[in-house]
Amino acid sequence: MSTPTEAIRDKSMANSIEYQRLHEEHGRYAAELDRLESKSFLTEEEKLEEVRLKKLKLHLKDQMAALLKSSKPAA
Q1: Which residue range is the domain that position 58 belongs to?
Q2: Nearest to 12 by CA among 74, 65, 75, 58
Q3: Number of domains the chain is built from
Q4: pLDDT (0 to 100) of residue 4
Q5: Whole-prediction pTM
Q6: Is residue 14 part of a domain?
Q7: Helices marked H in the chain
């Protein structure tokens, strides 16, 4: 049984091209972060890239949350 938020998210994934795009981009950033975090040593450039990717990923998460909030039916 899914929660109301999960149901809205699933509906957005199925019906919203914008949400799908944001979700896919978020996944790409997460995969790149995983790749960087798996290294035992990061160069200064890689450390900056890690910070940049975390900020971008958070920004996408905020955008997805805003889309979900606008999709919720008024109570």
Answers
A1: 4-69
A2: 65
A3: 1
A4: 67
A5: 0.77
A6: yes
A7: 4-15, 17-37, 44-71
* Of residues 64, 51, 56, the one with CA closest to residue 12: 64
Residue 56 domain-assigned?
Answer: yes
Question: Per the domain annotation, does 75 fall within a domain?
Answer: no
> Per the domain annotation, does 35 fall within a domain?
yes
CA dist list (Å): 41 to 5, 6, 27, 38, 47: 39, 37, 23, 9, 9
Split the chain (75 residues) into runs of 10 and give each run's mean pLDDT.
69 81 96 96 97 97 90 64
Distance CA 11, CA 23 (A): 13
62: how many CB neighbours lie within 10 A of its CB? Answer: 11
| Long-range contact set of residues 48-54: C-beta below 8 Å, sequence gap at least 24 | 53/29
